[in-house]
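Need tokens for this chain, all 211 residues.
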Amino acid sequence: MRAPRLELPARARRRRSVSVIGAAIAVAASVALAGCTSDPLADQFRDGDSKNYIAGDGTVTEIAAADRGEPVEFQGAATDGSTISSSDLEGKVVVLNFWYAECAPCRAEAPDLEKLAKQYDGKGAEFLGVNVRNQAATAESFAQTYGITYPSIVDTDGALQLAFAGTVAPNAVPTTLVIDAEGRVAARILGQVSEPSTLDTLIRDTIAEKS
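Here are the structure tokens for all 211 residues:
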């Protein structure tokens, strides 16, 4: 059964004007990233011990092509200091994952996202992380610890969250969006990607729209 259609906010111009997201996210206690051989925080999350963490429930929402909003424009600084913008990704399907280092479900889903990123490398989809809380050094340490090879934008000023307001709930990190080749939101997973096959299907279906 298709999930309920996501209602995106209407707007008069291509670039969105949105209100500031001010909700705070309760987080679990931090553990050091460098040199980790195990991840107690992610293990606790998998075991159901959320430590009062607030996250989405993994709800999947798909949006029919005819019902998608306008393309979303964005730009931000990656952890290596380079600039990444929506224009760089024009014509490509993009998987956009909102995360931060102390987020237990973000840690739990990281290996699955990296596996899918490698699967689609050069095959129709680009992966891009959006770190909503950490500075570049922490985000880079996370990437090294978990073997993440795709880039992440540091979004501590909330610019990308604002660009996707109404799609990314401030109290539901991680959130993963599938952006179609026209730059429009095609699907959303609100919370951890607990079933990689589901995201795989969303990506594959969105790529197929181009043919």
